[in-house]
Amino acid sequence: MLCKDIMAVIEDSYAREYAMEWDNVGLLVGRTDKEIGRIYVALDAVDEVIIEAVNLEADMLVTHHPLIFGGMKQITNQDFIGRRVLLMARRDMAYYAMHTNYDVVRMAQLSADYLKLKEQEVLEVTCEEAGQEKGLGQIGYLEEPVSLKACCEGVKKAFSIEAVRVFGDLHRTVRKAAICPGSGKSVIRDALRKGADVLIIGDIGHHEGIDAAAQGMAVIDAGHYGLEHIFVEDMRQYLTKKLAGVEVIAAPVRHPYMNI
After folding, report:
1. Which of 13, 19, 159, 167 has a CB 3.0–4.6 Å from the CB of 213, allowing a cystine?
2. Annotated binding site for a divalent metal cation
3. What is the distance between the alpha carbons of residues 48 and 36, in angstroms, rounded to a whole number?
4. Do the first three CATH levels of 3-100+229-250 and 103-227 match, i.e. the same topology?
5. Which residues are within 8 A (CB) of 23 and not within 5 positions of it... i.e. 6 or more apart?
């Protein structure tokens, strides 16, 4: 199957138009006429992932986070991004990224489903399609009111992570929860406005965390990778279902840092 045909399948569900203006999604390295028989799916195009893709003789690498964000004035072996691009180019490997377009279409609802949130709605609306709101994050109700500490344990179990950071009183009761995987400080205002007791997020700064808690909303920072690694298996299943005759392999879950 040609790379351009696989791109068409992906973009039929995850149109590039849904991505934020600052984002860089789509085919970032490679040929659209490349014949694809094996795809490797990962969260980030780090050295280990690219080497694994090479060793597996993958024809295409699909990641959530784009390796190339801003304009590159040169591609050489003198910097780590250049070396990664050169390795993929030498191996004639197509590289495709689907970032905030996936966030808007799928990540928000998928992450909320992991928490079994009820009465879900979009947290930060960025666009509409056929009268249906789409955007970043979801907000809804937990199955039952729980303490903030119990909510933390539920997040850890749902996403298979060892630890979270918490802003707020561990003994307070939370019922209405908002979730936004990845960097999501832009959704804090919407979460407060929509009455969230707790915001579960993938990346929040010190000041944003204490300010949110001061306004009555607890914050659980589960880590960028901690929440977004669900992309990998979800896309493996999607591509396997959509692409007959193409083998799709998921990279193992491998957190980029350790809690000591």
Report:
1. 167
2. 64-65, 103, 224, 228
3. 21
4. yes
5. 66, 99, 100, 101
Two structure tokens written together for 192: 């407060």
* Whether the Cβ atoms of residue 47 and residue 238 lie closer than 8 Å to each other: no
Binding-site residue numbers are 64-65, 103, 224, 228
In sequence order, what are the beta bridge partners of 126?
A: none
Inter-residue contact 25 to 66 (CB < 8 Å) = yes
Look at the domain 103-227 and name its fold.
Answer: 3.40.1390
pLDDT in tens, 142-172: 999 999 999 999 999 999 999 999 999 999 9
**Lowest-pLDDT choice from 91-95, 185-189, 224-228, 247-251:** 185-189
Name all contacts of 208-214 with Cβ < 8 Å and 24+ positions apart.
209/165, 209/167, 210/167, 212/167, 212/188, 213/167, 213/168
CATH 3.40.1390.30 fits 3-100+229-250, yes or no: yes
Domain spans of the chain, in order of start:
3-100+229-250, 103-227
Q: How far apart are CA 89 and CA 76, in angstroms?
A: 12
pLDDT(259) > 90: no
Beta bridge partners of 125: 135
Q: Report the amino acid identity of residue 44.
A: D
